[in-house]
Amino acid sequence: MRIATWNVNSVTARLPRLLSWLESSGTDVLCLQELKCAPEAFPTEPLRELGYESAVVATGRWNGVALVSRVGLEDVVLGLPGGPGYPQDEQEPRAVSATCGPARVWSVYVPNGREVDHAHYAYKLRWLTALRDAVTEDAQGLLPFAVLGDFNIAPADADVWDRSVFDGMTHVTEAERAALAALRETGLEDVVPRPLKYDHPFTYWDYRELGFPKNRGMRIDLVYANAPFQKAVKDAYVDREERRGKGASDHAPVVVDLDLDLPHE
DNA sequence: ATGGCTAAGCGTCTTAGA
Fold first, then answer.
1. Where does Mg(2+) bind (predicted)?
2. N or C: which end of chain A has fewer CB within 10 A?
């Protein structure tokens, strides 16, 4: 089974690439982030024509996540149970989970944080605490389980192209990395993909200042998996080819190949 | 050339992204 996560930066703008990439990559389960669409604007029908079911959480202009699967989509949970809202009580569309064939998976879009002294940063940390609480039971379970998505945190200094550029900025702070460590303490582990080019598996490159051609990237799209899921991993890589050219997202898909039995109908 | 941002909304700028 092939599972992937991809921040598409607008599913509407990315639709031609999304459909062709699904077909060419042979992905069975795709976790999407930054849909940037209203719920009725999600391309459910074009995906169904390719054989995929969809579970979508979206509210319009910002955020939005989905699970797209051709190996089953059961027990869907929309949103992050117990999660905080922003700017007030209402939750943003940042999480969806479901059972896809042999695995239970989440697609998450962790809040950006904006700046360290911004309310959005405190919200980011609260959101990550709620995520840890919500996944603890499944992380310790016997069934393959993983949280995939845009975590908006570089786990280590090597996960940004130049650490000095990030002094005093979000994505590299101790508190954010402690939140990732707390997630690992539930039993999850970072499935680090291999790069297809250069020496580090960056997953995001800023549109500005030739970020991609200069390989000024960050590894912030992560796969956090429990032990049964990790044991099934045969390969993992960043499909940086999808970042190339006109009409690309600023994130590349992270692809994981698993040796798991698919359900037969 | 992989190439000096991109996307959406009520929009001819503002907000957000990281």
1. 7, 34, 150, 152, 250-251
2. C
Q: Check whether residue A65 has its CB closer than 7 Å to nucleic acid strand B.
A: no
Q: Answer yes or no: A123 catalytic.
A: no
Q: Per the domain annotation, does A236 fall within a domain?
A: yes
For A178, which DSSP code?
A: H
Residue A261: what pLDDT?
A: 79
User: Strand B within 7 Å of which CB atoms in A 69-88?
Assistant: none
Nearest 5°: phi and psi at A178?
Answer: -65, -35
Per residue in A223-240, pLDDT (tens digit) is 999 999 999 999 999 999
Nucleotide with C1' nearest the A61 CA: B8
A2: nearest Cα among A30, A27, A32, A31 = A27
Number of compact structural domains in chain A: 1
A9 CB less than 7 Å from any atom of strand B: yes
A118 an active-site residue? no
C-alpha span between A97 and A67 (Å, rounded)? 7
- Asked if the structure places residue A263 within a domain, the reply is no
